[in-house]
Task: structure prediction
Amino acid sequence: MSRSYILSALTLATLAVVTPATYGAGSLILQDNFESYPDTASMNAVWNGNPASTSTLSTNRPGIVTDTTTQALNNSPTASGQQAQEAINPTAIKPSNTNPIFWQFDYFWDGTGNKRMTAGIRMGSNYILEMGYYNASYSPFGATASGMSVRTVNVLGSGSLPEGATANGWRIMPNADNTTNYSLSGLANTWFTFSALIQGNTITYTIDAGRDGTIDSTYVATAPTLDLTAAAFDTARLGTGLTSTGGGADFDNVLIRSLAPGDANHDGVINADDYALIDRGAAKALTGWSNGDFNNDGVIDQNDYLLIDTSYLQQTPSAAASLLASRDAQFGDAYVSELVAAVPEPILTAPLALLALTFANRRRRA
Result:
């Protein structure tokens, strides 16, 4: 039998039924869709890290009624230092290449330019990451530009990024083929989804215009000395700490999650969807977390399958029999032994250990 990476139908059937849970290094840090707040005062009682915030509960933006969401946070500052913010991450979770942090939010752009209206996460005054509309951003394609941008500053090694040499560290996002600045033509009064996959030495920033599931812009911030492994982000911000001549913006569906190895689609569980993504990535020789490169080494191989399999067995130990049988046929005894050793006690139950022993005994009799 050829050792294909593709899972057997039996294993896929087992993977299809899972219970969402905290497992491995995966945990929810912050999630807010602003639906629970009856009024602005209630919202600001939560997003009260900055008493000077001018944020209000918004219910009247075009297109806001999407995915059962009807409310958002609007930040429209009249002076500097009026952003909303919330303390997060009390257990000081930090990102790594195999256990990244995924940060995402929705952003409504009304078509007005000359804004300084962004969202950010940070650790005190260090490890500052921001995404949104900024009116004076570095562009690798020409002069300083205005538009959808990202910022990576006060991060170890961020000065080595091309935008790190600029005064403010902002960088315009590129178009889909990375040849020009990302264009906002025809996108007034549109909801955007911004996301950042934060690994130990890489940040992958993306934009989805229209929230239709299609990535329209990607920028991978990486440099030989970039290091985020000490970034225990403790604050989330919505809105700018600066003035914004072009006015404010709405923010919605804020999500910050620590990902377990193998959570390719960032949804907090390991299931058949994640296995489909790594199988596809391996078959097409792709790279990147969402394609199954879970250790960020530029190739999808058995090391990445070991990471997703370990997370899956921690989440769903009842799947051990079918998964180990499949992996024994595909990758052999050595892989199965390494997988069994990687799953920590007490999750590694007696039946799982017995199954591994059965495999070894069968090979000795052969």
